[in-house]
Amino acid sequence: MRDVRGGRWWASWAGGVLGVVVAVGPVVRYWLTNPGDQRLVDLDVYRSGGMSLLQGLPVYDMITPAPQLLPFTYPPIAAMLAVPLALMSWPVVQWVWTLGVFLCLGVTVWYSFREALARARPRWAMPLLLALLVAAASLLMPIRDQVRFGQVDILLVMLCVADCLARRPWWPRGLLIGLATAVKLTPGVFLIYLLITGFGRDGLPGQRRAFYMAAFTAALLTILPFLVMPHDAAGFWFSALLDSERLGANNATTNQSIRGMLLRLYLPGWLTAVLWLALVAVVAWYGFRHARRALLAGDRLTAVALTGLMAVLISPVAWIHHLAWVVVVLAALAGPWDGTVRPWRVWTVAGAWIYYVVPIPWWGVSLRAAEIPVLSPVMGRVVQDAFGLGALVLLWLLARRTRRPAGDHGLAAPPGATASDPGHSPVDHISPGNR
């Protein structure tokens, strides 16, 4: 009987991997066979940064070949970590990176939907359910853009999610958040999350320790490049970082942050700046307040999802692929996993999934190009902002969940764990940072 069950388990894994390959195959084939000068252009930026470092050339003066002409825009440690990419040929690195994108997506889905996967019956069907979730997530436009551009965002999402949601991590908690923050500054919102949940009258000691580790790691990886590449490090922190236009046109449709949406309005520059600061302050207060409340209520997943949305909304520039956090948000909306199917929740998750599968912001571009009086300039802008406005709605939906009484979120210990298990004590259960 055990051999039969083991055979089913391995067959389920094999079927799951095959299912994912079939599901993502068209996306991968499309973007890895399109014209070379349009293929994985951000990966080319990473690799070129590593090559510049190896060749002793100024990293922040580097420009990728025409027609892209893209500069290196990431912190100096990212160029150091990109050196292995420079040691591989371009055809090889494309496939290695694309495989890494889906591995990171798989890990993110595993942590985000772990409670649902733990309830899969029969047990051998769990790999098939995981494969189905990965395949569905791969259709989201922010995830498709990971493959299209060869982006690093899903790796950063995976690092933050694993650091916050792993039950017994083998690494010091906070280490992965510090690494993600050093590589690309937007995950720094998780330093704020650890700070507001670790300090104060009812702060959690585990969160406090995780904050110290994250801050130490981010600081160390920021200082290290000054010893290895001092000129480039100074050039980034005192020059390149201050030039937001290096990232591309900030008012482009792909910028779905609050600032991006405001830049597309017909407002004076000074008024845009004032409104942005005011709205960021309000949204940050609202989002982090509810993230803290969610964690204290035991709903770690919702706390992480809310914080991830902050990385998009309050950033000066947040391209559509930054919304890879939608994977975690969908998991939070779908819970709690208490065995009860609630139709309204199913419809909410399905609607949000479809919303981010369809390229709605680009419909706004087409609407504006139609030049219909009143409709084009007004509704065109609204539709262009669809993903950013959707992120605000998702923020509100998740915040509503934090108003429930504590314990109403269905967070379950893993199979076999008991109340006396030191890895799942009541305090430990609500703190992702105290082990």
UniProtKB/TrEMBL annotation:
Pfam family, one: GT87
Domain of life: Bacteria
InterPro entries noted in UniProt: GT87 (IPR018584)
Subcellular location: Cell membrane
Chain spans, region Disordered: 408-435
TM region positions: 12-32, 95-113, 125-143, 175-198, 210-229, 265-288, 308-332, 344-362, 382-399
Topology class, membrane: Multi-pass membrane protein
Keywords: Cell membrane, Membrane, Transferase, Transmembrane, Transmembrane helix
Keyword Lyase attributed: no
Family of the protein in this entry: Belongs to the glycosyltransferase 87 family.
Protein name: Glycosyltransferase 87 family protein
Organism: Sphaerisporangium aureirubrum
